[in-house]
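Support case: magnesium ion complex. Customer-provided input:
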Amino acid sequence: MNSDIEQILITESELQAKIKELGSRIAEDYKDKIPVLIGVLNGAVMFVSDLIRACPIQLNIDFMAVSSYQDSTESSGVVKIIKDLDRNISGRHILIVEDIIDTGLTLSYLLETLQARHPASIKVCALLDKASRRRVNVPIDYLGFQIPDKFVVGYGLDFRDLYRNLPYIGVLKPYLYEGITGDNDI
Ligand code: 5GP
Ligand code: MG
Ligand code: MG
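Agent response - structure generated as follows:
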């Protein structure tokens, strides 16, 4: 285990088993459609790539990059689009794929922005949910795991753009970020 990690919260095999389950549910629900899975960069990069391999149907993938609170562990509520979609999603069935829903502010902004483009439907798939921190109500149609209010890294999730390559979800030792208001996506 990486020495900056206090505890492994979700192991690699637990992640992979859950993703197989989510992939099967999504494949069943979208078997008669060609959905567009939208990975929210950078945090969802591992999740979306494993999820699509667990989803044996016709689908498109696209990516958006948003930044909500650069270099902070707390959300400012200000969300900026760093990279937009490459396609028109009007009339398409959209599945947003997120790493973690914390305050819900990022997802709420994404839903509003994408809804304005008139997709046929929008659903949300999130690997992790820190429900105790929610500030706005957002729907999660497919969820991997509920987690406690701890700052986690690994499997795409970073602190200061590090630890994304860990194959598990771990709790970062708090002394590493205490006193720093600092980190979010990108
Ligand atoms: P929200 O807008 O829901 O507060 O924030 C969602 C984003 O905050 C996530 O996409 C992620 O980038 C970041 N975030 C929230 N909680 C954590 C956490 O425990 N660890 C990491 N690495 N990022 C988090
Ligand atoms: Mg995210
Ligand atoms: Mg981040």
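The chain is about 20% helix and 30% strand.

Case will auto-close in a few days if no follow-up is received.
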